[in-house]
Design goal:
This protein is mainly beta. Helices cover 12% and strands 45% of the residues.
């Protein structure tokens, strides 16, 4: 039986491991630089010949208004809807019976006080039933406008950005990074989120409301694998 003197020591050791077992609310996603990317400034050498078209000033006859350069903005239409379910059922059973009648010596069974002592019978059986069901569903909709942070060699655009909202002592934020194709951008300069490759989407918040909806450190300790009971 555990002594009363050892219990506080084990409790303190478990609380010391609590910092490694849990991450603070809102920091599960790696904090990257989601600041808007500024366009690259181009130096255009002065010309004195009066021509309209100059080197370093790309002007197309049919110019697009959608994002294509570093610093351009594009609106991501959030249309995330996922559903997943799984179920399993396992059943196994086994029965076994062994009978060993007693031998006879000189035509008579081996008995003691009229009870056969060498007769044996074994009955064994086992059974197992297992069943599991899992289901998950999530829906996310909205809009977030991000900037182009990099143009890849194949012309795809790396985008990133965030939206911060402050409501009554609570700060909510949406952060997004990913890669989009210029051909997927609609004429109104929007693209659906399910067309974004390598997307990292985070929605969380910090403040009074987030703290009220989260467990305290001691409660998380008793719900963790660190607690031995």
């Amino acid at each position: 039986m555990m002594s009363r003197a050892r219990f506080p020591i084990l409790l303190l050791l478990g609380l010391g491991q609590l910092a490694c077992a849990f991450k603070p609310v809102g920091q599960e996603v790696r904090q990257e630089d989601y600041a808007a990317t500024r366009p690259v400034e181009q130096y255009i050498p002065p010309r004195e010949n009066g021509a309209i078209y100059q080197p370093g000033m790309p002007v197309g006859l049919f110019d697009r208004v959608t994002a294509r350069r570093i610093g351009d903005i594009v609106t991501i239409v959030l249309k995330e809807n996922t559903n997943a379910s799984a179920s399993s059922n396992t059943s196994a059973s086994k029965d076994q019976k062994v009978e060993m009648p007693g031998p006879t010596l000189a035509g008579q069974p081996v008995e003691k006080d009229g009870v056969p002592v060498l007769e044996n019978q074994v009955d064994a059986g086992r059974e197992f039933n297992g069943q599991g069901t899992s289901a998950q569903s999530s829906t996310f909709s909205g809009h977030i406008t991000v900037t182009v942070s990099e143009v890849l060699a194949n012309g795809n655009l790396v985008v990133r950005g965030q939206k911060l909202m402050l409501f009554n002592q609570s700060q909510e934020y949406i952060r997004l990074t990913g890669i989009i194709r210029p051909v997927d951008i609609r004429p109104d300069n929007t693209v659906d989120s399910y067309r974004v490759a390598d997307v990292k989407l985070a929605y969380s918040g910090d403040g009074v409301l987030s703290n009220a909806n989260s467990m305290g450190p001691l409660a998380r300790f008793f719900q963790s694998n660190v607690w031995p009971y």
